[in-house]
Specification:
17 strands; alpha+beta; 7-stranded mixed beta sheet; two-stranded antiparallel ribbon
Length: about 350
């Protein structure tokens, strides 16, 4: 997650699944599904008892993605299943201003995941797009109706603040050839409230971590983190590893595994009050496409995902290579990236070769 303008000028180095030996890759594949897994799990709860949540229906904000993009979109293939673009945003306004998010005006899309749910909806795949990936931004329509011209070598996470969420969707569709069926956005403050609502998350760290940028100060050992500490934990980079921006992914993955484990331990169906509290915190932080922008629609979508087990999701980082002009940025690695997106479009198995990234974060 981002924390200020200085972050964007530092090295965008990523640890990938291919860069580790032993059992770590499996944990990392399961771990990088922050919002995806949580959303599926909570929507499944909502699908069972959504009538409890009628009082918080107005929390959800909607964006008419179809109207903003128009017909300039990939064809929806019958083999492509369901595809959801999930963004974590870091607005520096309001409640987020106190969360060590930096002093840059506006907001950025900190985390980007394409959640792919194949036909049959038994196992999902989440593809993360590194925020420092250089892409070609297509011609887009802004929220005020004006037009933003196409631009080359644009950093992916800047598109949200420059043009808006619909343009992020269009950019992902252009680079992947995959039609996005839905859009879901969760902000920093909402993530904090969600962790607090479940009573915190327990993690164990093997070394002292002191990061003045994120605010995290942890001694080696086991800790139960509240919402603010959890944000500091997943945003920490300077206190661990090589200090690179994407070197913190290991902590993010560790935290998400712990978060999922904590949620699964709680009897949400048997505790309507807690379920309501969690749903209230989540929906207050949600922005979705207009087709999902109500509790009823979210519940219907959640019921359709009941066969998906979050713990079995596979997560893959979009294969990237260091940019030859600016080594602080990355670009999609070929042919791996094209192979990955083709497999998702066609509903095929993703080859192992398409999951390996030349950029290692070392």
């Amino acid at each position: 997650m981002t924390h200020g303008a200085t972050t964007e000028n530092r090295r965008a180095r990523t640890t990938t699944e291919g860069g580790q030996d032993g059992p770590a890759p499996r944990k990392r594949r399961r771990g990088r599904i922050v919002l995806a897994s949580l959303l599926v799990l909570l929507l499944a709860v909502g699908g069972t008892a959504y009538w409890l949540y009628s009082g918080i229906d107005g929390n959800i904000k909607g964006v008419d993605i179809n109207k903003a993009i128009g017909d300039d979109r990939p064809e929806k293939l019958p083999t492509s299943g369901q595809n959801v673009l999930i963004l974590g945003s870091d607005s520096r306004a309001g409640a987020n201003a106190d969360l060590h998010t930096g002093h840059v005006s506006g907001a950025r899309s900190d985390t980007a995941l394409v959640l792919h749910i194949p036909q049959g909806r038994k196992k999902a795949v989440a593809v993360s797009i590194p925020r420092d990936t250089l892409v070609t931004r297509p011609k887009c329509t802004k929220a005020d109706g004006s037009t933003a011209a196409s631009a080359k070598r644009v950093m992916f996470n800047s598109i949200y603040s420059q043009v808006g969420p619909a343009c992020v969707v269009k950019t992902v569709e252009q680079i992947s050839g995959v039609r996005m069926d839905h859009y879901v956005e969760v902000d920093f403050a909402g993530f904090k409230g969600l962790v607090d609502a479940i009573g915190g998350v327990t993690v164990t760290v093997g070394q002292d971590i002191h990061d003045s940028s994120s605010g995290l100060d942890l001694a080696k050992g086991t800790h139960k983190l509240n919402g603010t500490q959890s944000l500091e934990f997943v945003r920490t980079r300077h206190g661990i590893g090589d200090g690179s921006d994407l070197g913190r992914i290991g902590l993010q993955q560790q935290f998400m595994i712990a978060l999922l484990a904590e949620i699964q331990k709680q009897d949400l169906l048997g505790s309507p009050v807690k379920a309501y509290k969690i749903a209230d915190k989540l929906t207050a932080a949600l922005t979705t496409d207009s087709e999902l922008a109500s509790l009823t629609k979210l519940a219907e979508f959640g019921r359709s995902l009941n066969g998906v087990n979050p713990s079995t999701m596979e997560t893959i980082m979009l294969p990237v290579a260091y940019d030859k002009v600016d080594p602080n940025r990355v670009v999609a690695a070929q042919p791996q990236a094209s192979t990955l997106w083709k497999a998702i479009r066609t509903g095929s198995d993703i080859p192992d070769s398409a999951k390996k990234s030349p950029a290692t974060g070392g």
